[in-house]
Amino acid sequence: MLRLDAVATGALGVLLLVLVGRLDALVGIPAAVALPAGVFAAGYAVAVWLVAARPRLSPAAVTAAVVVNVLWVAHSVLFVVVGAPTTLGTVLVLLQAAAVLGFAALQATGLRRLH
To answer: Residue 40 in contact with residue 69, Cβ under 8 Å?
Structure first.
């Protein structure tokens, strides 16, 4: 599940970075939000991929992934509440947040199996 999280997060990061100047008009995500989110997502994806590539998973690293994913979901919901996304932007942000929450739940389940 970590590798899938890394691929999906990396794709989101690249998408945010490639579309950074156009997202505001399309979905109401300003460059001031999209750029740092894209950089963070791309870097996080690399980190998660490296964690997943280890021969033995580190419970601390998996816990960190779960925490970061939950924080990402919280920030996504906060953006919808206090930002100014369009209706399409709201739907897209909440859909990706639901996917990330799913990753967090599956990773937490896997974490219990590591102990």
So the answer is: no
SS3 for 44-74, per residue? HHHHHHHHHHCCCCCHHHHHHHHHHHHHHHH
Single-letter amino acid code for the residue at 63: T
Whether the CB-CB separation of 45 and 7 falls below 8 Å is answered with yes
Cα–Cα distance measured from residue 115 to residue 108, given in angstroms and rounded to the nearest whole number: 11
DSSP state of 30: -
User: Quick one: which H or E segment has residue 77?
Assistant: helix 59-82
pTM above 0.85, yes or no: yes
**Segments of the chain with pLDDT less than 50:** none
